[in-house]
Write the structure tokens for this entry.
Amino acid sequence: MDFKDFEILKAIHEEGNLTKVGNRLFISQPTVTHRIKQLEKQLEITIIKRGRKGVEFTDQGLYLLKHSEKLLTNMRTLQENLWNLEEEPHGTLRIGASRSAALHLLPEILHAYSHKHPNVSYTITDGFNKEIIQSVYKDDVHVGIVRGDHHWTDAQLTLTEERICILATEKIPLDQLPNNKRILYQTDPYLTAIIDNWWRDQYKQPPSVSITTSTMEIAQKFCEQGLGYMIAPEMMIPRDSRLTIQPIQTENGENIMWPTRLVYKQQTTDLNLVQKFVEHIKKL
């Protein structure tokens, strides 16, 4: 039983599907199955079984999972403490990031940081903001990059603050916005609430939605083809985009902003590779 086996057990518990586990850990589904069977043979137990909702742990499997999570944490801590004995940052920095931050912000950050500290490697986990906050809280990642304001009582730094804007191929008078086709996308509930509250303050009728899609990036492509307008933070707009930008504002004429923040536990800065990354962020 090794480090990878611990990761597989944890992933099975969270995903409930061996194919998803393989995709998450970048190994094939047959490899996941083989390693579980080898582990069952080694320990002479049955770890998982097929259930109505997918793969389920047996009682023995749950007991093993409980203790393997402790072992995984201890092994990870040991490995990181060994890396920490070196003066130059070394090891794997685990970063959680919202999807838009991972796409539009993180590559540039890591490009600069990697030049300073070439011995650091990275594991990037993307997801919704709430998921990233939970990952930092549970120590699944060292740091998280999240969008919007969230209840986080430990250390945090503001990376950017950007305007939330109406995007369209041509500028639309605000009093005509309800009469134009709008493109909706799935996003963080807090961002949705901000946009919805602004709309209710401005208009008495709901928007005329023509397209609903799963991501902001897909919505942007439709918007660029003139299929409607969208309301989104300006970070996702490419520099060479021809879309017009109209910031949405409060009744007092102030732009409504959408922040991006680095969140982390202060205690994790005891690790050299985390401390150096935080210092790098502070200088941006």
